[in-house]
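re: ur question from earlier - yeah i can do the single chain one, its not a big deal. heres the input i used so u can compare w yours
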Amino acid sequence: MPEAQARPRVLVADDERVIADTLTMILNQSGFDARAAYSGERAIELASEFKPEMLVSDVIMGGLSGIDAAIRIRGLIPQVKILLFSGQAATSDLLETARDQGFEFEILAKPVHPQDLLARLRG
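and the output i got, formated as tokens:
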């Protein structure tokens, strides 16, 4: 019997639990193995054990920003695909700082439409 294909692992990080949980549920129903983290710090902890292939993270979170968490997770898992989203103007400064450090991230505007997210993750 052929082995079932593993579902792509996605880590969703957002300090707004409703958003993190909703995106996680949508991804799980769409063929992914998704888990939610409610802070940048927790996303790093979870990434080290879950080993996601993709990270979907809000940029502005209390504590560690999504960009800082993404940089640290990329250090743990160099091949991880990273997709950031934000509804705040301060994001451009944070992205510029990350660019200066040699990191380039794809970003979606909040609110994230599930079809847009799925298209980016599958593409």
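Residues 17-29 form the longest helix (13 residues). not sure if urs matches, ping me
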